[in-house]
Amino acid sequence: MGDSQHLQGERGGASASRHRTDTTLRVNGKPHQLTLDHRRTLLDVVREDLGLYGAKKGCDHGQCGACTVLVDGRRVNSCLLLAVTLDGSEVTTVEGLTGEGPTGDGEQPHPLQQAFLDRDAFQCGYCTPGQICSAIGALAEAAAGHPSRVTDPRAPSGRAVPLDRDEIRERLSGNLCRCGAYPRIVDAVEDVIA
Amino acid sequence: MVSTVVGAPVERREGLEKVTGSARYAAEHAPPRRVWAWPVPATVARGTVTAVDTAAAMEQPGVLTVLTHRNAPRLAEPDDATLAVLQNPRVPHRGWFVALVVAETLEDARAGAAAVQVSYEPEEHDVSLTMTHPGAYVPEEANGGYPAATEQGDPERAFASSAVQVDADYRVPPLHNHPMEPHASTAQWDGDRLLVHTSSQGSTAVQTVLAGLFRLPEDGVTVVAEHVGGGFGSKGTPRPDVVLAAMAARQTGRPVTLALPRRHMPAVVGHRAPTLHRVRLGAEPDGRLTSLIHEVTTHTSRIKEFTEQAAVPARTMYAAAHLRTVHRVAPLDVPSPSWMRAPGEAPGMYALESAMDELACALGMDPVELRIVNEPETEPHSGKPFSSRHLVECLREGARRFDWAHRAPRTAGPLRIGTGVAAAMYPVLVQPSTASAGACPDGTFLVRINATDIGTGSRTVLAQIAADALGVPLERVRTEVGRSDLPSASLAGGSSGTASWGWAVHEACTRLTARLATHTGPLPPDGLDAHADTAGQADADSPWARHAFGAHFAEVAVDTVTGEVRARRLLGVFAAGHILNARTARSQFVGGMTMGLGMALTEGSTMDAAFGDFTQSDLASYHVPAHADVPDIEVHWIDEDDPHLNPMGSKGIGEIGIVGTAAAIGNAVHHATGTRYRELPLTPDRVRRGAGF
Ligand code: FES
Ligand code: FES
After folding, report:
1. Are A145 and A186 members of one domain?
2. pLDDT at A103 (0 to 100)
3. Which Pfam families does this one have (chain A) (predicted)?
4. Residue B610 CB contacts under 8 Å (≥ 6 apart), including other chains
5. Which H or E run contains A142?
6. Is the predicted pLDDT of residue B174 greater than 60, yes or no?
7. Based on the domain organization, do A69 and A35 belong to the same domain?
8. What does the pLDDT look like over B656-683, one tens digit per residue?
9. Where are any strands of DSSP class E within chain A?
């Protein structure tokens, strides 16, 4: 790939490197070869090595969901993953959700990003990228038939689970919003289902 | 004529940046050669640092320096003692920062901090607040500058001789703000000039404080707070992160970012102090109050007196000829409490509105009617007339929409379902600010003011105010906020931001309009501008008692097997002057009510007596409401035409949503179960333990 980058950035690289390993990540469609400190989480890689600050750090402990990104299409708390373990993975952050505009000259928000705008589904915006990535992951899980705690146990397995408001609430409960935008986040998610 | 845009549901101007991830918060400004800092918190609750062994930390790869009280830059003495970090060896509470490691990477800094060895001379500590704590005293003032104690009539005697009495104690635990963005600062020096990106509710104040601490001229310090991931009071004034980042940057000659680890936050960013309440209500058989006594005991730290003004709402709410309110505060070896959304009103109205519900039950009276019967003619404490007060209308409107008339409790399997009501109140606060408005030759207008957008949408609402004042379409107005080199302004706190900034913006735009009216010919290349300063105007004494009011209605289900309480419906009706942006205002009301739901059901911190530490120090143990906890929340408002406020006719809306929610939910739990709980939060263990079912 012509745009492949090898980063042993001064930020990551100046630290004496007793435990570092070459790792390749494909992030938002673009390959990155990185020499990574084994302690570095995926969250810190996307933020500090790749400058993708859309992934937020709210707790660094898997307790808030602000850092949610997609790894190979599945939502994860990126603060809980050591990036060296993800060699060869495909990572999508909130920045990778926008598409080309109709004229190909600008960024077109993903329908869910647009729904968040339409519904005013945020205030401070700090939890928002995580909510959006998490909802995209949750929609895929439901489509694949994954049940949640509130799914009717009699629902046929393997079939797509329809998402009502309670399902959406349950499935997004790993994403905290201290501004309390929850009802409108549910509205926004419903908008893209409808 | 351009139609008015004030009040319209205008979209947030920075919305696209926030949903696409391009909005930058304080820790996300990465100047070249930027390094990281990680603090070391004290592990004793009281004592003195006797030694800091930094050798092992300095050997860690990437560590540049370890700051301690011995080698840290000397600061001028701050007004706020919590900012005197690394200045002396005293440890006033557990979690106080005793060292700071600066390293090339975040991982290096964290490892370095773990390797710092601190020795202490510990002392006996006391972190346990009781109503009869011998150290408690009545301060001169409670937070907000309110007198700590007031008395009119003979409340004790009137209470003793009243026909119906309620005498109840309520407890609200310590609560944590926990904005989703941790406190964070990136500091860089250029010679003697300091540039800081920080997560703050008001960067003018940060600039002033940093200039003082580092002995710099104010214009030598620039503070930027472009996007702020919530604050809820905890970022109202500078916190230690910004001071430490600036120190570390000075010491290392490198730009430094310090983002507080979540678990460090409860000890150093302020918290809502616990409040122990005794409320006595004496009433006639028709429900009319004769005596109202609200006594509050709370804690503060050893280094700062902060008294949560929880008895203050009782001075405004109800007509009682005999009225006493008093605050007592006990300095303990605890972290310094500070502002958390509606300090005073939130816990105070929990207690008062719970007691009103108890009184309604004792009288066999509808709790909505009881409040209406006690509607005062003038503000009970001050005797001032209300500039506007539509509490009764909020109650009636809410009751109608909620179908309060058909509120009989019911049972559904193991669930008991009940409803509750509570009033809400928040004072109208406003601060002087400055602003400029400019007309540009390209036909646009530029409004500049150091307002802060902590999620309220201030860029947007200020543009609306400006567009109306200028009589131009909204799209032609640009707003610049969030930098201390803009015209100075007050902070986003006390629900005063929009009123304070909007007033200055309105004034600047009005002056610009006048200038433009007399200007002939094309605009000069630099355009024309006008400046406004509302000092002396915005802060002038008012002959009016000015408050926003509201009413909360809640329906809960209590699981008699597990003790779990779930809110099924929340409905709020508010009267807060003119609502300036229907869209963002609704989000603020809902957000406040959500935090009130947390206060009622999930949020509670405890001081561990042995260790002197908050037990619930992270988001796994301190439960802020999650999606599944929050039902659909209905919000309505009654538009008020109040000429005694500001040019926009607005009251603040950022805090009133949290005021009264917890009481409405607690009252609903009583209605559902017949059990009166008087301690928050209503967690399953507590509900099960007290259960009469
Ligand atoms: S930052 Fe990863 S879950 Fe909070
Ligand atoms: S929008 Fe502020 S935390 Fe969700």
Report:
1. yes
2. 60
3. Fer2, Fer2_2
4. none
5. helix A128-143
6. yes
7. yes
8. 999 999 999 999 999 999 999 999 999 9
9. 5-7, 20-27, 30-37, 68-71, 74-77, 90-92, 99-100, 107-108
Closest by CA to A79, choosing from A71, A87, B57, is: A71
**Per-residue pLDDT for B153 more than 90?**
yes
Q: Residues 422-461, chain B: which have Cβ within 8 Å of A?
A: 454-457
**Ligand 1 centre from A65 Cα, in Å?**
5
**pLDDT at residue A13, rounded to an integer:** 43
What is the rounded average pLDDT of the residues A14-28? 82
Same domain? A42 vs A84: yes
Contacts of A47 in chain B (CB under 8 A): 28
| Residue from B11, B20, B579 whose CB has the most chain A CBs within 10 Å, to mutate | B20
For chain B, what are the domain ranges?
A: 26-124+180-230+235-268, 141-175+271-428+543-691, 431-533
Domain final position from A69, A96, A123: A96
Binary contact (B595, A180; C-beta < 8 A): yes
Q: Name which of A120, A180, A181 is nearest B583 (Cβ-Cβ).
A: A120
Q: Tell me: the pLDDT tens digits for B121-143?
A: 999 999 999 999 999 999 999 99
Mark yes or no for CB contact A180/B456 under 8 Å.
Answer: no
Contact call for B21 and A44, based on CB within 8 A: no
CATH number of B431-533: 3.30.40.230, 3.60.60.10, 3.60.20.10, 3.30.365.10? 3.30.365.10
Instruction: Decide if A127 touches B, using CB distance below 8 A.
Output: yes
pLDDT in tens, B527-554: 999 999 999 999 999 999 999 999 999 9
- A61: domain CATH number is 3.10.20.30
Question: What is the per-residue pLDDT for B2?
Answer: 46
A185 lines ligand 2 (CB under 6 A): no
Distance between alpha carbon B531 and the CA centroid of its chain, in Å? 30
Q: What is the ipTM of this complex?
A: 0.97
pLDDT at A11: 42
- Give the percent of chain B with pLDDT over 70: 100
CATH class of B26-124+180-230+235-268: alpha beta
- pLDDT for position A107: 75
- Mean pLDDT confidence for B153-162: 98
The whole-chain average pLDDT of chain B stands at: 97
* Residue type for position B132: T
Query: What is the rounded CA–CA span in Å between residue B120 and residue B69?
Result: 13
Structural domain count, chain A:
2
Which among B107, B111, B630 is the nearest to A183, CB-wise? B630
Active site (catalytic) residues of B? 655
Ligand 1 pocket mutation, candidates A41, A44, A45, A64, criterion most atoms within 8 A of CB: A64
Residue of A10, A113, A178 with shortest CB distance to B179: A178
Task: Tell me the CA–centroid distance for residue A173 and ligand 1, in Å.
Answer: 13
Spacing, Cα B618 to ligand 2 middle (Å): 17
Decide if B26-124+180-230+235-268 and B431-533 have a common fold.
yes
The answer to whether the pTM exceeds 0.90 is: yes
At B444 the pLDDT is 97
Are residues A12 and A88 part of one domain? Answer: yes
Section B503-520 average pLDDT: 97
Cis peptide before B681 (omega within 30 of 0): yes
DSSP code for B629: G
Give B58's pLDDT tier (boundaries 50, 70, 90). Answer: very high
Which single residue is written with the structure tokens 């009699």? A154
Calculate how far, in angstroms, residue A82's C-alpha sits from the geometric centre of ligand 1. 13
Query: Cβ separation of B230 and A184 shorter than 8 Å?
Result: no
The DSSP element (H or E) to which B355 belongs, if any, is: helix B345-363
Do residues A85 and A138 both lie within one domain? no
Tell me the CATH number of domain B141-175+271-428+543-691, given options 3.10.129.10, 3.30.365.10, 3.90.1030.10, 3.40.50.620: 3.30.365.10
Q: Hey, are the CB atoms on A184 and B180 less than 8 Å from each other? A: no
What pLDDT does residue A194 have? 79
Name the A residues in 64-123 with CB < 8 Å from any B CB. Answer: 64, 66, 93-95, 97-98, 107, 109, 113-114, 116-117, 120, 122-123
A19 in B contact zone (CB under 8 Å): no
What residue has token string 């207008």?
Answer: B445
Question: For the CA atoms of B11, B17, B20, B26, what is the dihedral angle to 10 degrees?
Answer: -130
**How much of chain A is in helix, strand and coil states, percent to nearest 5?**
35, 20, 45
What's the CA gap between B89 and A46, in Å, rounded?
39
